[in-house]
């Protein structure tokens, strides 16, 4: 591929047991440019992934040029997918990256099939298509071109500022098909961002990318997610974040509280024990019932953030008549009555009126207490 031959080291793929089951591995590459990361180049047999019926996701098809992600976000919900290859959801997810080097060519063949119905395709819903290695492999231009030329709508969600390279391609694609772009920016405290998202560009760099997308004439949403309890849910942090999002020109904003899948929770808690040990008991209590923060916390967060969204005159999306949910301009994500991202098939029990609802009580109906609107948080 496009690696500089200087310092390139090619390893045997069989050094990782899980990869031995993939009979299309071309080579495994390490390079000083990506210290500690190994890229396993494979020939993909398919490019389009059908989202299982009943998953609750608001999109039906995805493309993942990469598996694993050097962004190394501690909270990433995609971490458990690495275990399918007998790789762990922690360090391996960050450092053992699968690269589908022929994904654009395979995609072109699949899109030419008479059975393809031009359903919208989402990129960035699992691992980031604009992680740093994309600068070398350059898979996305071929993917964007194939989708647009076939008449297939596409959406991109990324933390990667490398998106700016492909803005002209996206502008051209938008003349042929609907194109949605969203930038994920959850952390606006630089020190915290470097700790929990060590491989990502800074919030400032991502906001400049939002501005570049908008200057090119495309809409660009910001995904302010996940909101981290007691770390990024203070009024000061949220207000600063939304002020900067507005200044960058974002067309809408979407938020949700942190959720911790079983395969992610141990890795996140290990990070929390190391960096914020005082919060470990609170998180254990808050997430004791499962993956999602309790309803009381989500309601509390809604009452804190929604007035700030309105104050900064940011768009929360438009109502989807078919469901009564609120959809952002990116990825067809639906939100419940509190403005949080939720699966499109949420129930009427979850559709709560937020603007007219009374403020939450001083003590939420769990053992963990959330501060009232005027009380300070950690920051």
UniProtKB/TrEMBL annotation:
Q: Which residues form the Radical SAM core domain?
A: 55-304
Output compositional bias ranges, type Basic and acidic residues: 335-353
Keywords of the record, alphabetical order, are: Iron, Iron-sulfur, Metal-binding
Kindly give the InterPro entries that the UniProt entry links to this protein: Elp3/MiaA/NifB-like_rSAM, MJ0683-like, rSAM, rSAM_sf
Q: Which organism is it from?
A: Labedella phragmitis
UniProt-recorded Gene Ontology molecular function terms: catalytic activity; iron-sulfur cluster binding; metal ion binding
- Region labeled Disordered — which residues? 316-379
Its name, as the record gives it, is Radical SAM protein
């Amino acid at each position: 591929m496009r690696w500089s031959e200087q310092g390139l080291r090619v390893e045997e793929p069989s050094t990782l047991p899980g990869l031995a089951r993939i009979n299309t591995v071309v080579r495994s590459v390490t390079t000083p440019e990506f210290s500690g990361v190994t890229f396993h180049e494979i020939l993909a047999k398919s490019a389009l992934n059908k989202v299982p019926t009943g998953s609750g996701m608001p999109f039906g098809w995805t493309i993942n040029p990469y598996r694993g992600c050097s962004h190394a976000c501690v909270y990433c919900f995609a971490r458990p997918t690495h275990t399918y290859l007998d790789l762990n959801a922690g360090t391996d997810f960050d450092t053992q990256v699968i690269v589908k080097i022929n994904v654009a060519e395979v995609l072109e063949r699949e899109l030419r099939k008479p059975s393809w119905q031009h359903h919208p395709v989402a990129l960035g819903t699992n691992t980031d298509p604009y992680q740093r290695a994309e600068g070398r492999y350059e898979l996305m231009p071929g993917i964007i071109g194939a989708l647009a030329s076939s008449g297939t709508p596409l959406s991109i969600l990324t933390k990667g500022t490398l998106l700016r390279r492909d803005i002209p391609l996206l502008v051209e694609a938008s003349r042929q098909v609907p194109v949605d772009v969203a930038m994920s920016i959850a952390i606006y405290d630089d020190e915290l961002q470097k700790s929990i998202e060590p491989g990502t560009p800074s919030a400032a760099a991502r906001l400049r990318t939002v501005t570049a997308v908008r200057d090119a004439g495309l809409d660009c949403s910001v995904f302010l997610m996940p909101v981290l309890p007691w770390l990024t849910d203070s009024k000061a942090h949220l207000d600063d974040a939304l002020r900067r999002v507005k200044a960058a020109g974002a067309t809408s904003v979407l938020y949700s509280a942190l959720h911790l899948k079983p395969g992610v929770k141990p890795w996140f808690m290990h990070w929390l024990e190391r960096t914020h040990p005082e919060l470990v008991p609170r998180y254990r209590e808050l997430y004791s019932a499962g993956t999602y923060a309790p309803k009381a916390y989500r309601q509390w967060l809604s009452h804190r953030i929604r007035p700030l969204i309105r104050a900064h005159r940011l768009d929360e999306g438009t109502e989807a008549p078919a469901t009564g949910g609120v959809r952002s301009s990116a990825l067809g994500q639906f939100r419940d009555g509190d403005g949080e991202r939720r699966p499109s098939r949420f129930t009427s029990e979850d559709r709560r009126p937020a603007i007219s609802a009374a403020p939450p009580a001083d003590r939420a109906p769990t053992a963990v207490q959330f501060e009232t609107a005027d009380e300070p948080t950690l920051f």
